Amino acid sequence: MLDLRKSVQTDLHFIPHSLHIHMDKRRTLIHKIAPEKGYHERENSIFKPRKYFIKTHDLCRMTQKISAAITAVSGYVPEDILSNGDLEKMVDTNDEWIRTRTGISERRILKGLNKATSDLCVPAVLSLCEKRGILPSEIDCIIVGTVTPDMLFPSTANLVCEKTGAANAWGFDLLAACSGFLYSLTTGASLIESGRYKKVVVVGADKMSSIVDYSDRSTCIIFGDGAGAVLLEPNFDGLGVLDSILRSDGSGKAHLHMKSGGSLSPATIESVARKEHFIYQEGQPVFKFAVTRMADVSEELLKRNNLTGDDIAFLVPHQANKRIIDATANRIGLSDEKVMVNIQRYGNTTAGTIPLCLSDWEDQLKNGDLLVLAAFGGGFTWGATLVKWGC
Ligand code: UT7
């Protein structure tokens, strides 16, 4: 059987002579590429002197390579709205500044005692199962990308398994801040591609209101609470997660972090008094890094898959700031109608933004649409993922 581990990185695959393709598949492959020629002539021309390329879709079909298709998507935001007008009453800001500098008009807040990130995940996961017509007990694994877990342990995924009745699933949290969904999606896709798991749920969820200082006008205007989830299942037609470029740079810690509460600086009365359990963000340097890195990685992803903006149906960007979204879209040559933007309604829900966009745009997505998912966040972490929609 053809070993595709190296060749799946791009949408066009060089078929070298040295690849060990099972003879029947090799014949089909040769016939498909050059049907007009005789077998030996075709074999010589294809496998020896010249480079021939084939699309992922065809290669997957012919080699039975498993890809991770997104077979259902759902989103959940809490009912309570925190508008720019509400924030005007809390800090020295105004609606016009927030809208022009960020694109945000309102965000959702999860209110109530004993409400946590798992309470955002649960409705998203249950609605996912309902849409796909499966029971939670059929789920093999749940990955929760989050920076606001209910507790440090047990993991939020663990709690979500219990609360949804996913009694046969294992799971874990993945912390990569605003890139949490892309990191989790790529990890979940690898579990499916391995052939060991049939139903993996990937959730991006954050209750950002639990770590926002509502007296700091530079951060409290940005963040909101929300969750989105996708179900990944095996596919043999080359649909789903096709490629990912994920990056990290720990030196970004200086500009965006939560100082205390971890093993470096456990919670004390003093750390609470110093407000070290809230988000610390230096907006401008983060903005500059985000603009460059998100655009760079999206461009790199398109290039290595021999694609241009014309091939892409939608850019699905992390919703941190409308100006960062616009810069990324411009760089890869996408017009406004090909960019998913719902930041005006939800603000920045950290790991929740990308699946919430997919959920909001689900009705407009067609089988075979190519999507570029792109994110940047604390760490720094950033990345881009190419998805072929459909199942
Ligand atoms: O998702 C995780 C990654 N995070 C991001 O991607 C966020 C990236 N950064 C940003 O989106 C932007 O930097 C912010 C939205 C956070 C800030 O926007 P900015 O255009 O970079 O503003 P600034 O920090 O340069 O501040 C400009 C001015 C300052 O006043 P002076 O010094 O010029 O008088 C601020 O004090 O705006 C002032 N300002 C505000 N004014 C009204 C800062 N926040 C506010 C506010 N309302 N909420």
What features would you highlight for this structure?
single chain, 391 residues, alpha+beta, Peroxisomal Thiolase, Chain A, domain 1, 3 domains, 5-stranded mixed β-sheet, 4-stranded mixed β-sheet, 14 helices, disordered N terminus, binds oxa(dethia)-CoA
Distance between the termini: 24 Å
Label the overall shape.
globular
Task: Please give the domain count.
Answer: 3
Q: Characterize the biggest β-sheet.
A: 5 strands, mixed
Order of helices and strands: EHHEHEEHHEHEHEHEHEEEHEHEHHHEE
Helix percent band: 25-40%
Task: Give the overall average pLDDT.
Answer: 90
Bound molecules: oxa(dethia)-CoA
Q: Which structural class is indicated by helix and strand composition?
A: alpha+beta
Poorly predicted ranges? 1-10, 16-23, 47-51
Based on the structure given, which CATH architecture of the largest domain is correct?
3-Layer(aba) Sandwich
Query: Helix segment count?
Result: 14
User: What is the name of the CATH topology of the largest domain?
Assistant: Peroxisomal Thiolase, Chain A, domain 1
Q: DSSP strand (E) fraction?
A: 15-25%
> How is the largest sheet built, in terms of strand order?
3-9-8-6-7
CATH superfamily of the largest domain: Thiolase/Chalcone synthase
* Total beta strands: 15
Description:
It is a single chain. With 391 residues, the protein is α+β, with helices and mostly antiparallel strands. The protein contains 14 helices and 15 strands. It has 3 domains: 19-63, no CATH class; 67-240, Peroxisomal Thiolase, Chain A, domain 1 (3-Layer(aba) Sandwich); 242-261 and 275-388, Peroxisomal Thiolase, Chain A, domain 1 (3-Layer(aba) Sandwich), CATH 3.40.47. The longest helix has 22 residues, at 283-304. Helix content is 34%, strand content 22%. Helix 1 (23-33) packs across helix 2 and helix 11 (283-304) packs parallel to helix 12. It has a 5-stranded mixed beta sheet, sandwiched between helices. A 4-stranded mixed beta sheet has the order 10-15-14-13, with helices on both faces. Strands 1-2 form a two-stranded antiparallel sheet. Bound molecules: oxa(dethia)-CoA. Oxa(dethia)-CoA binds at residues 93, 97, 101-102, 178, 217-218, 221, 283-284, 286-287, 290, 320-321, 324, 348, 377.
